[in-house]
Amino acid sequence: MSHKFFLNKTQTPPIVSRVEPCRICGNQAGTKIGEVDYWDLQCANLVLCDRCNLIQMDPMLTNESIETGCFAYYLYDCRGTIPEEQARNLLRNYRRGIVFGGSLKKLGFQPASILEFGPGSGYFSAGVRHIFPDSKVTVVDIVDEVLEHNKAVHGFITQKGTPENPGITGNKKFDLIIARDILEHVSDIGKTIESVKNLLNPGGYFHFLTPNGYEDSWGHWLHFKKYGGRSELLINHVNYFDGQGLLDLLRKKDLFPVKYFTLHIKTILRGKGWSEKESITQKSSVRFSALKMLEENHSPIVSFDKNKILDHWYLRTSHIWLTLAWCRYKHHWLIKLPPSWNRGHEFYGLFRYIPV
After folding, report:
1. Strands 346-353 and 255-263, how do they pair?
2. pLDDT of residue 14
3. DSSP letters along 183-206, please?
């Protein structure tokens, strides 16, 4: 990503001094491309680093704001999703875990110990364990309800913490670390990748999904350019990654790409990254109350019968090749783009830790 993506003939984004330095390179200056309200908890600028091209919230959200806002967003999201669709999403995540586990098996890799940051429903890692039934899964999250759900439904080992400070004690290491849709949420991405490095066994793998920051920030930039003032941010996306910049960071931490590409180019067709139509411009902030959302909608995570969720012929069969074939059919990608193009919705990464 470069500044040219946020320039036009009539308006140039202002260069600003940051409240906090860039969490990758320590740069104190950057280009302001937006102003956001995170619920009614915090307000911040979106600042593009001139050196590493990372866009971050400045100042960064506090852990208290993240914990409150994350659970408020979970309830907000569930409120708009019928239970039948929630159940289908659990099955989809399980199948995706199977596909991912199958890709590891094809590489000749069989993880005995797995760590997942921000597991959500836990069905992705449960799908991976379908391929590697003897593997032990540990999950780390900041929300107690998520941990309780993962322990009760899947029998995972649980640990309250964050990717920056996972709370894993002793010299415990893992063969595989998973962070799907997590890196965009962490307050210190440099410290997070260092944590991944420290928790991986040499030769271990790190798998992540994270949005393409250029498209993910586009709606906020459009609002800032058209209207000024703050746009609304309910999901705590605090990092907006550049494809090459993220690769450079990982390589500096001795994490080297096995698979790295961009998925879901339908976002380009909708106009993210090039169009200025109103439908993709982020809404003005109305400062939704996170605490009010918790008070009015607080309820435990919806629990579904796991046996019913997974009651399908391709999951019951003893022929694992048939299970893999069906799941790959349901979750294959026709088009993959280089992350350095910063085109498409999501970066997919599988990196191997090779100490140099």
Report:
1. antiparallel
2. 77
3. GGG-S-HHHHHHHHHHHEEEEEEE
Cα 277 to Cα 142, 240, 354: the distances in Å are 37, 21, 45
Q: Is the whole-model pTM more than 0.70?
A: yes
Each residue's pLDDT tens digit, 295-318: 887 665 667 899 999 999 999 999
Structure tokens at 41: 């908890």
59 upstream amide cis, omega within 30 of 0: yes
> Is the separation of the CB atoms in 24 and 192 below 8 Å?
no
Q: What is the DSSP string of 270-311?
A: TTTTT---GGGSPPBP----HHHHHHHH--PPP---HHHHT-
- CA atoms of 43 and 26, how far apart (whole Å): 21
**What's the pLDDT at 9?**
44
| Long-range own/partner contacts, residues 221-226 (CB < 8 A, 24 or more apart) | 221/6, 221/33, 221/34, 221/46, 222/276, 222/280, 222/281, 222/282, 223/34, 223/281, 223/282, 223/283, 223/284, 224/13, 224/32, 224/33, 224/34, 224/35, 224/46, 225/8, 225/11, 226/276, 226/281
> Parallel, antiparallel, or unpaired for β 200-211 and 174-180?
parallel
Q: For the chain, how long is the longest CA-to-CA vector?
A: 63
Distance CA 141, CA 299 (A): 18
